[in-house]
Specification:
By secondary structure, this protein is α+β, with helices and mostly antiparallel strands. The chain folds into 2 domains: 39 residues; 42 residues, no CATH class. It is built from 4 helices and 3 strands, in the order E-H-H-E-E-H-H. A 3-stranded mixed β-sheet has the order 1-2-3.
C-alpha cells in the first residue's frame, strides 16, 4: 500500500519520512492541496530504479537489433568480449 503524506507532513516530519524511505526502500507520495504532487525516495532506491530502467532500455535495444537482423553467433561475441578484456577495453 502506498505511503501518502501531505506537503505539510514533509515539512514538519522530514526526518521521519527520510527514515521510512531508507528503511523500506519505498517512495512516499506527497500531496499538495489534496492532489498528488511528488514522489520522494532515498537516493539508493532512486539509483536502483534508474538501473532497472537502463537495463530495460538496453534489452529493448537488443530486441530491436535482433528484429533488424543485427545478430552474431555467440562464439564470436564471446571472443570479442575476451579480446576486449585482454586489451583492457572492458
Amino acid at each position: 500500500m502506498p505511503n501518502i503524506k501531505s506537503s505539510t507532513d514533509l515539512r514538519n516530519n522530514y526526518n521521519e519520512i527520510s527514515t521510512f524511505c531508507h528503511e523500506s526502500c519505498e517512495p512516499v507520495y506527497i500531496t499538495k492541496n489534496g492532489r498528488g504532487d511528488l514522489a520522494v525516495m532515498s537516493i539508493e532506491t532512486f539509483e536502483v530504479l534508474n538501473g532497472k530502467l537502463e537495463l530495460y532500455r538496453l534489452l529493448d535495444e537488443g530486441r530491436e537489433a535482433v528484429k533488424a537482423g543485427k545478430k552474431r553467433p555467440l562464439q564470436q561475441v564471446m571472443k570479442d568480449i575476451k579480446r576486449g578484456i585482454e586489451n583492457g577495453e572492458l
